[in-house]
């Protein structure tokens, strides 16, 4: 399992391989497929909902005027789509349980 610094994709692959008793190569394919499926769904505008964990959606940010921090010059910032994760009730409850 990962240390307190964070979990990498490689750590996740190792954990999936251990938990599902798969080879590292098979676990890597599972993890990549999972992420690719989420990304492709978001790209097409489909929200991804994982009951008990949370949901991934896209939020639309409108065009705006910003400033170049170096020069102070005003610049047009184009509209963009931003991925957003909203944790589910069960995940929030688990994270807020007292430890020990």
Descriptive keywords:
100 residues; three-stranded antiparallel beta sheet; alpha+beta; HU Protein, Chain A; two-stranded antiparallel ribbon; elongated; 2 domains
Written account of the structure:
The chain has 100 residues and is an alpha+beta fold. The protein has 2 domains: 1-46, no CATH class; 54-100, HU Protein, Chain A (Irregular), CATH 4.10.520.10. It contains 3 helices and 5 strands, in the order H-H-E-E-E-E-E-H. It has a 3-stranded antiparallel beta sheet with strand order 1-2-5. Strands 3-4 form a two-stranded antiparallel ribbon. A hairpin with a 6-residue loop joins strand 3 and strand 4 (74-77). Helix 1 (9-20) packs across helix 2 (24-43). The longest helix is centred in the middle third of the chain and has 20 residues, at 24-43. The chain is elongated and about 55 Å long. The two termini are 19 Å apart. The relative contact order is 0.11. The model has no long low-confidence stretch (mean pLDDT 93).
Count of individual domains: 2
Q: Say how many strands there are.
A: 5
**pLDDT below 50 for ≥5 consecutive residues: which ranges?**
none
Cα-to-Cα separation, first versus last residue: 19 Å
CATH superfamily of the largest domain: IHF-like DNA-binding proteins
Mean pLDDT: 93
* CATH domain fold name of the largest domain: HU Protein, Chain A
The fraction of residues in strands falls at: 25-35%
Give the neighbour order of strands across the main sheet.
1-2-5
């Amino acid at each position: 399992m990962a240390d307190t610094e964070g979990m990498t994709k490689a750590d996740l692959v190792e954990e999936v391989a251990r938990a599902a008793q798969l080879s590292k190569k098979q676990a890597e394919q599972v993890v990549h497929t999972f992420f690719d499926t989420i990304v492709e769904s978001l790209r097409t505008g489909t929200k991804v909902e994982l009951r008990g964990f949370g949901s991934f959606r896209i939020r639309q940010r409108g065009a705006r005027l910003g400033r170049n921090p170096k020069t102070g010059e005003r610049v047009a910032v184009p509209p963009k789509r931003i991925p957003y994760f909203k944790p589910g009730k069960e995940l929030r409850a688990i994270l807020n349980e007292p430890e020990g």
